[in-house]
Amino acid sequence: MDNLGFIKVAASSPKLKVANPFYNAEEIKKIILEADKNLAKIIVFPELCITGYTCADLFLQKKLIDESYKALKELIDSTSNTDILCAVGMPIVLNHILLNCAVLFKSGKILAVIPKMYIPNYKEFYEKRWFTSGFEVSNIDEINILGQKVPFGNVIVQDKDLNVRIGVEICEDVWAPIPPSSFLCINGANIILNLSASNEVVAKSDYRRELIKGQSARCICGYVYASASVYESTTDLVFSGDLLICENGSLLNSSEKFKRESQIIYSYIDVDRINSERLVNKTFSDSLRVSNMTYKTVDIKFNNISLDNFDRIINPTPFIPSNKQEIDIRCEEIFNIQVTGLAKRIEHTGLNKAVIGISGGLDSTLALLVTYKTFKELKIPSENIIAITMPGFGTTDRTYTNAVNLIKSLGCTLKEINIKDACLQHFKDIGHDKDIHDLTYENTQARERTQILMDIANKIGGIVVGTGDLSELALGWCTYNGDHMSMYAVNSSIPKTLIKFLVNWYAEKTEDIKTKDILIDILETPISPELLPPDKEGKIKQKTEDAVGPYELHDFFIYYAIRYNMPSEKVLFLAEHAFKGKYDRDYIKKWQNVFYKRFFTQQFKRSCMPDGPKVGTVCFSPRGDLRMPSDADSSIWL
Q: Which residues does the record give as L-glutamine binding sites (predicted)?
């Protein structure tokens, strides 16, 4: 099976005995065999794990060094039948100096030895008493170890077929102002392994986690971090066995600290996504200008790449905050971005009135809430918001009532203009049968509503606030020069799933019980443009998701296909995992094809979309984020 750009990695903190290399190597061997059985392809262990980090002056004992070499050989030989790249830490003697090194090996062969560059010698750290910095031996690019000539120092290990390039740094290196991983990454490494022995003091683990996440974001890389276990000496320090796997600023997996058993964590790193992000981010490639480092590459070949046990958590709603503790902060930030954008436009135009069409649906509801908050910020009376409800052939009592009640509850000026007669007259003018409920029938209503909004705005000296959202723009689910157009579109970079989430957040936050009840009912109303007559019971007959598919699927496609430029096969694979148990493969594939077809054919609408604030990582503004031909063919994506 194609690995779709994923590779499974592991980090482990084994039980150990300080200054007992053979015991330690045996524990490491057990973990390597387990990780290999679980189809991990890369595993990193803590700094100096063969001997233990806390050996102190015992590092100067020849006996300890010699035995650690023997233990390493036994470890490599006993794991020679595995297909996993291993990184273990141990002391290495070179030219009568002692180096704190990472030894990389795979399938019975040592691939590289990489020294620690920054040797901490402050506060509780006293490493310079024993170890010399790798900077002091930077002129050496090859060493002899266990009878093998091995690349040393600036080394990147790569599997060309998988586009995986692996670099290594050790503990303190990542705490430096310019970590070695920064140079490794701008020279091609996309996965960094860190062998560490970071001790615990109050709040240090939080800082360390943010440091690793931040470095993975800055370097646009995967970052696999393993720290020493609780079995290190506690003469002065305590270690927790902290394990972290990060990818481009996101924490994929972490361990429970202070466990008294060997620990191992796994995750799939999306190497293709990392490489794609680097292509987009030109600042990343520009950074090569400040690097005069050269690296030797070591080629390897991973076998049996499989996604059969793919267990990476894929969020089915990637635009919605997943951290419950941050939800309120995130929602308020999104809302304030919308408010700030609209406020600037109103101040710049010198106008103090806004015109907005209210349907009783989600999009216009959020736009009205944003406009209401904007006017409060600018100290403009809410009566200056002219909220217009425009009943048409498909308007139901439920949406009409919600629209009217919401406008009143916010203290805005309600204006009702029934568009039926105007549309019937237009049907006569263009020779259209009013009983033929086709696209002309629908779009006539949408354009009539937009004309009313624009003309009233001209009449009163106001600005038309647009209500359309990102999901509708992606699908072209808007009437060209109808609801497609406004003077400022506050929802233009907010997907439908997030709009629903924001309205719910506002409902939970508001102290006005009446407004809250209205918003809850709006949230429970089926999504519809209400351009076709309701059913016999007066309920919504035209449901958008029956026509174009579930918005949660389309928002998922937007995130991965547009935000991360993933190929359609990979997006389908991820969607299968994200919506497992809810939608099957054929159902997802059906709507995925609809998504691509509509996304390509409807670009002309996005090419002339109105101004609106960028809120998240995806935006379709032709002036900023998306420059796409209106007549590109979608065949290869289907």
A: 122, 198, 204
Neighbours of 536 (CB within 10 A): 7
User: Per residue in 582-632, pLDDT tens?
Assistant: 999 999 999 999 999 999 999 999 999 999 999 988 999 999 889 999 999
Q: Is 543 a catalytic residue?
A: no
Residue 207 annotated as binding site: no
User: Does 472 show up as a binding residue in the annotation?
Assistant: yes
In a domain, 316, yes or no: no
Task: Read off the pLDDT of residues 176-228 as tens digits, 9 standing for 90 and up.
Answer: 999 999 999 999 999 999 999 998 899 899 999 999 999 999 999 999 999 99
pTM of the full structure: 0.90
Read off the amino acid at residue 533: P
CA atoms within 13 A on the CB side of 613: 20
Catalytic residue check, 47: yes
Confirm if 116 and 171 have CB atoms less than 8 A apart: yes
Q: Which CA distances in Å does 328 have to 121, 127, 493?
A: 43, 45, 19
Among 242, 273, 294, residue at a domain's last position = 294
**Token pair for 496:** 């439908």
User: In whole angstroms, what separates CA 281 from the centre of its chain?
Assistant: 15
Residue at 288: amino acid letter: L
Strand ranges (E), 238-299: 243-247, 250-254, 263-270, 296-299
**Range of 106's domain?**
7-294
Same domain, 215 and 106: yes
* Beta bridge mates, 464: 355
Residue 345 sits in the same domain as residue 434: yes
Q: Which of 47, 67, 442, 552 is catalytic?
A: 47
| 635 known ligand binder | no
Nearest to 229 by CA among 200, 256, 190, 258: 258
Known binder of ligand: residue 287? no
Rounded CA separation 30/79 (Å): 9
Is 171 a residue of the active site? yes
DSSP code of residue 595? H
For the chain, the straight-line distance linking the first and the last C-alpha, in angstroms and rounded, comes to: 20
Identified catalytic residue from 29, 116, 213, 373 = 116
Residues facing residue 488 across a β-bridge? 465
